[in-house]
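Known limitations

Files may contain more than one protein. Parsers should not assume a single record per file. Below, a two-record file is shown to illustrate correct handling: read the sequence, read the token line, then continue until end of file.
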Amino acid sequence: MFMVYGVTGLNFQGPLEEYNRVHAVGRTTGVRKVVAKGEDKEKVGFIRDAVSKPNEAAIKAYAETVQPDLERGPLYHASQIMVHEVITLQAEDTVAHAWKVICEHKIHQAPVLDAKKQLVGIVSDRDLLTTINIDHGQILDVMHRQVKDVMTSPVVAASPVTDIRRIARVMLEGDVDGVPIIDENHALAGFISRSDILQAVTTEPPVSLWR
């Protein structure tokens, strides 16, 4: 389930298919064909293994090196990989304050909340740099702007049970670097960035890609 939030509140709520129609998101490129189970691998470029039986000693040695927590089931939902402690900014914060928060926490973006703690946008370091003159990490001068003046709004958000693959698709099609996760009370519950998905693919239990 996806939502779109702006300064006027909730603008859209529904599945990815409806989001694509409403917001005219472009299509992604296709994926490579996967060899079907039982298909002759030699016909698609695989090289038959010269060893007829697996090396049991090698398998045992590898199994001993695998961390036990990597034996969990596959990942499906946003709640399984999202960051729960989210650094946020207020729409009324100054750009200088926002830049300081982002630098101190070594992040590149942050969800923006209004006075009622409702999601209204997202701001990145690139957005802030449009109003700040930086030299060697020090602010030389800054335009008198607030976060609400430079943030991206409306912003796409997702529910905690949203399929990770669909979140990745929204990132690609919408060219966004992160998706806020909103609970049933429309409160910010977490955040997923591109790096969170990459980390899940490379170090966490396998993501279910073909379900």
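...continuing to the second record:
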Amino acid sequence: MSKDNNSTNGQKMVLGVSVPVFMMGLVSFFTDVSSEMITSILPLFIFSIGGTALILGLISGVTTALSNILKGFSGWMSDKINKRKPFVVAGYTISNLSKPFIGLSPSWEFVLGLKATDRVGKGLRTSARDTLISYYAIEKGKAFGMHRAMDTLGAVVGSLLAFFFLFLAWTYSQIIFFSIFPGICAIGFILLVKDVDPTKVDDSMNKYSGEPKIDKIDKHFIKLIIILGVIEFASLDIVFLLIRSADFIPIEAIFLIPLFYLLCNIVYMVLSPIMGSLSDKVGRKPVIVMGLSVLLISCILLAFPVEVSIGSYILIAIIFIMHGYYLSSVDPISRAYIADLAGKNKRGRAYGYYYLSVGIISMAESIIFGLIYDTFSFTMAFIYVSIMLLICIIIFIITDFSKIIQKKS
């Protein structure tokens, strides 16, 4: 790791971002090592204790909705009390100390409870963390892209560890409980990051000027947030991609699934800062539209039945690569979009409204997908999500954001 001794606007830099952004990247790195060790095998673990695609969808849908609704609350509260770090520290602590015990669950109901606790932690921290990143950012697209890259590097390491431990014949439970160790490292690093008073933020640091900024959170801004939230409704939860990937390989090669997930995370990690910087130059909207289009193509491919062969190995690997591209083009760019369009004094609230919208809109998405998957077939489930994606892409393309966002008078 090399440090840049120069500074921009008085801030010391590491790998092109300010030191606090880099530190929060380390926190996310260790948290994702912990989380993705679990995520890469969690669908397999749930199926091993009697779960189904519908149960998988229920766990994913309920916990994701809970997380996003809490993000809305925590974003509003962090603005109200003008403090972000307490939410960030509490959130990372709750998550990293609860999720390892998922491995001791005797049934899917226990998994749901512990996963919900983990998501409570994520809900508490995310809006406040994103707000801190936006305050410390020199260029927001680059800052969010770099943070996401470090987060995803943790996912790469986590999924690689899961593969390694599966290869060594560790049980799912042993792998999940081992995740407590990187989680403790994450808690240690977040304690080193200082809070920020938004009245002392230098507006000259915010170099992206593609849209006017507003301090007032009004109906026009809410409309934008709802449109961005609808995108989440049409997204494909990674747990279903992991389960579907089992159809592309023989049962004795099941240990390869974390490697496919690793491939997705490598693409995500490499492209996140690139797509973030690109969005700083050409605008957020084109980058997001391309990411959604790639996801649409991958969902269409997943709708077709396959026979296990060398070709199926290659195809599923390509689909995971496409999913990594989609994530790098939509996730960090959407969050940078919110920072562009919200005034600095209401940025926590803006992130809160965004995540609240995502939580409400996407609450039924995973459950509906899992129900269709179980009741009809994977083909019908992926056709359903493809249709939803196409509708969302059209809405996003035809929406003129410059007319939604009104300049502050």
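Parsers that stop after the first record will miss the second one. For reference, the second record is described as follows. The chain is about 75% helix and 5% strand.
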